[in-house]
Amino acid sequence: MAFEYGDMLQTIKDRQWALADIDWDAPGAELITDQQRPSLKQFMADVVWIEHVGARAFAAMAPKAPFDALGDIYRYFQAEEQRHANVELALMHRWGMLEEGETPVPNKNIRLVIEWLDRYAEALPLTVIGAAIPALETALDGALLKFLLDEVADPVCGEVFAKVNSDESRHLAVGFQVLNDLGASPMRIHAIQTAGALVDPRILTGALLYIPLLTRMLMNLNAWGLSEEKLYNAVTRYSNVGDRSEYTRRVPPYHILKAHMSATIKHSQPLHFISRRLGTVIDHFPTQVLGNTPSWTEELTYEPVAR
């Protein structure tokens, strides 16, 4: 049965929600313990910024869409990722982790990704960015939801991430379908695009930032209590879904990302060691030389505005 992008677009329009739909004064915030607070604050800050980065990635994908319905879908996804960042920021304020008007500072790895996206996102081939987004969403959002539902007793948190997860399920459905559609292109097209990507310093720089970011987040989840089994299930979902598709396996970036995700949970693999060393180097990078963050990073808000 053919995938109907027009029907998906209508479903996305019908499923829109807003921060104002959530009762932010409902009881449950007091269930966050002092023991949980420091690590949860760090974790949520990273998640807020990763969602914000995801919004920027979808903004870059929209003009590359080969037809109007997909371009419109990507623009909705951009707005949804921004909403996810905002609602997670609102949770941090609900839990007393931030002062009035305060926004968390991105860690150095994310700060470098922000700078890189701002400069080069529009130059990325759709096959590269189209393979990276589902990888991040299957690994991080899948693991994130399990971690938060296991560790956080606040019912508002469960309500928030039920909405986020519903959106992400549509992001994944579209993401894997687009990968499959791209895979149907002639192999010579994939060969040319892959050869070009492997010698493009912009894409290579992005890989050097993306690889340690994903490894860092997954290792943090494991360190904060997510079981190895749940982490494994979240990470392998990418390959499980992709390998079942008819043409996805013809997309070279898919195989590169699949290998990296496997390495994040197999600590004996050389790529895992390299990824951790890259993370150490990034931790020592003087991000102050980058100056102010791009203007699009100022769109974060925890105010419960309506649709």
From TrEMBL:
Q: Which SUPFAM superfamilies match?
A: Ferritin-like
Q: Which InterPro entries match?
A: Ferritin-like_SF, RNR-like
The Swiss-Prot or TrEMBL record annotates one GO molecular function as: oxidoreductase activity
Identification of the protein by name: Putative reductase
Whose protein is this, by species?
Mycobacterium lentiflavum
